[in-house]
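Appendix B. One record, verbatim.
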Amino acid sequence: MGVKLTGVLLLVLLYLKFSLCDGVSIKGCKETERKALLDLKEGLKDPGRRLSSWIGQDCCIWRGVQCDNQTGHVVQLDLGNKRPLHDMFHYGPRSEPLEGEISPALLGLKHLQYLDLSMNFFGGIQIPAFIGSLAQLRYLDLSCAGFSGLVPHQLGNLSHLRHLDLSNPFYSSWNKAYVVRSYWLSNLSSLQYLNLNFVDLSKATDWLESLNTLPSVSEIYLSNCTLELPLSLAQVNLTKLQVLDLSSNNVHSVVPPWLFKLSSLESLDLSVNAFKGLVPSAIGNLTSLRVLNLANNRVLEGGVPLSLGNLCMLTSLDLSGNKYMHGDLNELGEVFSGCIKDSLEILNWVFSELTGPFPDWLGNLKSLKMLNLYGNYFYGPFLQLGLHSLKKLDVSRNTLNGSVPTNLGQLYPKLEFLDFAYNNLTGVLNEAHLAGLSKLQHLGFSANEFRVDLGSQWVPPLGLKMLLMWNSKLGPGFPSWIQKLENLSALLLSNAGISNTLPDWFWNFSANLQLVDLSHNDIRGKLPASLEHLSNLLYVDLSGNSFEGSVSQCPANLEYLRLFSNKITGTIPETLCYLKKLAALDLSKNQLIGKIPDCWNHSLQPKLFTFDLSDNKLSGGIPTTICSSSLDYLHLSNNNLSGKLPLSLRNCRALRTLDLGQNKISGSIPTWLPKSLLNLEALRLRSNMFVGRIPPGLGNHTALRVIDIAYNHLSGLIPHSLGNLKAMKVAHRIFYNKKVAFVAYDKISVDYVDNMEILYIISNKLGLGYMDNMRVNLKGKDVRYDKLLPLVISIDLSSNKLFGEIPGDLMSLSYLQNLNLSGNFLTGRIPQEINMLRWLESLDLSMNNLSSSIPATMTMLSLLSHLNLSYNNLSGEIPYGGQFFSLLDPSIYAGNSALCGFPMNKDCNNDTVSPHHKTSYDGGIVSQDDVNWLLVSMEVGYCFGLFTFGGLLLLKSEWRFSFLKFIDNFHV
């Protein structure tokens, strides 16, 4: 009995020991760990109040905290701001990220096994080295959290770690993490998953040797790491490695042979590098391979090895962005007759300049579910293969001709995605062509030559979510069958030839609508009073039509509203100010009146990047609330706005275009404008009432390439500092912002992720990124530029009250295309160094008080096609030669009584200048007589050559036939 009692007492004592340790019960967290969590919280900024539940005694019920059921110790801390895949590339986070510092109080969680701080923003701080002291950690995720600097080698102390993710695909130059030496990686003996995507490994030359020591690692991701890829590895120990991603490292070498000794490999991504030569035949050794991505390399220049066909487990193959140098894809029939034909489910070979008809061997891939061949030069008939498993077929952006087959439903009965836009298909597309495609969710046939004749009685695939028919011959009637598509989320009918009234049912047929684009038709009718019932609506583009009425009340989630070039009247509703997700607002070219609402709350609108109200009848001042840290483009031109520039405009620190032209804005151009708007690329204040001087600070801009402050009342000297404008001294190229969404779009799977596809369509519709547009006065004409605007370099200071000399510093702006200083009070000479403006196309110095002679160096301006020097006090002979041969209009020089020479009817007669005065040009002497004789000789030579050639054609019939055939082919 005593023994039993002793045993019971022992159990009680053990219970007390473990349950009352630190003075708390196992039903609540340990007091020391609760305090550690509160200290951690103290160092964090929590704008989204994600840690608001961190109150009370029991920390085990706090958000993100998990305790061990037996001991009560905190074992898991999940503060990650994870988002689903389809939201990863959307406009901003799903919830506010944590910021601030990571307190060393974290070390109080001695039993922590799981730590996730991903998708937060810690402002570029270094990963805390003390994390390496959390000895029990098994899972560590610091991805996309804004860490930068040297990755601490102390992480190598985490010998129990199985999962390590330090990736950061949203890095910038100031918040990129890097590794100098990677020896510490070899200490992570338990590691199974490693993701270092976008971590700079350029200085870690030992990375491969370190990873080769890890016995259990099964997944390694090293994309965008700027790494050097060794060609040899003495002993390959990565026997359990199943996934290896080495993409986007710009590797210039052959494919390393050691890769093909990774016998357990199931996924290999070598895309976006510069691998040379042939895909090694040793690739056939990777018999477990399921996914192979060779996109955007040069590895197909030598062909495709037969051994590729022996990868019997391969389900996904991406050869995109690789030219197949052998030309005829039918040569690959033997490769795709191997066992790969039975396993392959996804084949991507896009934007690879492939040409010819579709190869017959595609019909052997009976398991194929996704086939992407868009962006090539395939010609001939539409793909007609009996691929009954196919769910996605994209052959858009090729040169297919002929008509669409009428048996598509029999060939591809399981199709969910069908897109054959941007081809040369002809004939008529009717109900028969789409019969049997009952599972379609995406249908795109934009920009072809056929006429669309889908009658009102046609029953479309009722599961359709995406319907893309822009640039098609669909009209003139609005297709009534669309109202049957209750699941439709995206409808694009831009430039479809529709010219009647929008039916009443349109805004009510589908509550799932996310994207509506009816732009550039001639659709009439009134805008609905409200669209608020369409709560999923993200994008509305009705521009370029004849809609009337006032701006509709919009749903809270709307991100794009484009209504330009209509007949919309009334005032701008204040409700637009409170659309929290608004990214682009374009109401230009309408008949809106009244004041611009002064209620824009940019703390609620952190994504607004373009704001265009130009070409209306708006009045009043510029709203003080119009600016935000995200605003890139602000267009308020051609209205009746008045008052001065508000001081709050300096908060537009991201602004790239400021267009306030053609208003009644007064006051001076403030000195804070060039100091605050440092990203400005285009400044247009034309035709206003500005007074005072041009701020010298404008010359400090590194990006400014368009300055138009013409037709104001500005006075003073032209600042010499304008000669410092760096963007006018370099050539410019147009860069399209290809979003990561395009890559992810083809990788996600056949299944639909609606938001991802909506983003893809929006990006594609906007031309891979928003294209700004603006009027620029060139060669005396107002020209609206959009896609080419980034290439325009122009200064227009005309029609002001500027005086003094033309600064010679301006002549260093070597890529300047347009310089207009006309209508001022400028004096002195035209700078001799003007020939340094070698890209100048238009020069207007008219209506000033310039004197002396025209510099002979101007004849060296080889691109000059518009010149106006009229109404000055210029004298002497007009230079002759070079580009002046093409500037023959005498009005160029009118109003300069002391000028003489060609093309004016005034000879230069004095003691030193004869009527045929010789002008030096490029080291030679050219006289007027020489020029006249040259012109006569050219005319005689031309006539002689023409008659000789014509005579030969009459005498030689075979020559005549060949010439006429050439002309006929040329016209075709």
